[in-house]
Amino acid sequence: MKVRTRSSAIIATICLVASLALTAASADEPAAPRQVPKVALTKVTTAANPSAGAAGPGGTVWIAERAGTVRVLDGHGLGKPVLDITKETTTDGERGLLGIAFDKKFAHFYISYTNLEGTSTVDEFAVRHGRIRPDTRRTVLTQTQPYPNHNGGDIKFGPDGYLYIALGDGGSGGDPHGNGQNLDTLLGKLLRIDPAGGKPYAIPKDNPFVDDPNAKDEIWAYGLRNPWRFSFDAGTGDLLIGDVGQSAWEEIDWAPADSEGGENYGWSQMEGNHPFREGTEPANHVPPVHEYDRTGLGCSVTGGYVYRGKAIPGLKGQYVFSDYCDGTIRALRMENGKVTGASDLGVNGGEVISFVQGGKGELYVLDIGGSVFRIDPA
Prior knowledge:
Blueprint: H1 12-28, E1 39-46, E2 50-55, E3 61-65, E4 69-74, E5 77-78, E6 83-84, E7 97-102, E8 108-114, E9 120-128, E10 131-143, E11 155-157, E12 163-167, E13 189-193, E14 219-222, E15 229-232, E16 239-243, E17 249-255, E18 270-271, E19 274-275, E20 290-293, E21 301-306, E22 319-323, E23 328-335, E24 338-348, E25 352-357, E26 363-367, E27 371-377
Antiparallel strand pairs: 1-27, 2-3, 3-4, 4-5, 4-6, 7-8, 8-9, 9-10, 11-12, 12-13, 13-14, 15-16, 16-17, 17-20, 18-19, 21-22, 22-23, 23-24, 25-26, 26-27
């Protein structure tokens, strides 16, 4: 905050009068608008339909290619595939290799993909000296999918060390099976599991529905249509989810770092802040912190990250996101879970399918057409 200083070398009574006058004047002055940070997109490499990414060991960035390969981006460029599951997945519909993640110690690497039958699958590999050990592969979790769209597929480790998995409502349109509000299915949910605590995994004891016989223990949050990309703020631990809308509203959901889980984001009774068709807003609905309609070019929100890098000081603490159809890189200023401003950063990443946060907090933008950009100061 900028503070105006006043001279103290004046008579006390004059100082008091002047102070009161200045205070009254400043109260009438409009707040100076915040300047939009000047950024540029630097193309760092080209990949084959990059779909997801993760910060890797030794300052590397690992890039997933939708057809089933994983490649490592380092100071020498993008290397040859270090993992290839192209014979085990398909790019039909919204399928393919959809998410990758490391645990905190880079001791295990996880992939999220749809197999040839369309089943959402999360597999684990041990990592040694920064390299995947293929012989250690094991399947952690599977979920059948009734349709080839709305698979979700993003995976992240939270600040608590647990693995979070995003699954869409199962597809088609309008949630025909009512999965979003049904706690007896993993579809339309954000899950939270402990892959190191059991085989194939353990359920954290403080998950919100572990004592509910009518709910799946893995569920952390529900009422999601297609939470394509989510992230945790590296500075605060807050959770942000970009949930793709049906036909009218795109939304970004938020939960504080101290959340105990159980948030209901409303789908399919709600689309953003609006009843979907003739839906009734659930009593426990957690509305989005931001939404935008489809009257412009946008059609599918791509959730990003809160910027915590050092290269662009003016962007620090802002949530950076985009839209697959529109490609404009945008940012939200937030305070205590409230959006206080929105900015168009003036750059376009093409068909933005995902963001990647590098080990030092800098952000990369993935264009499904092949370009991998880094967000740099202009």
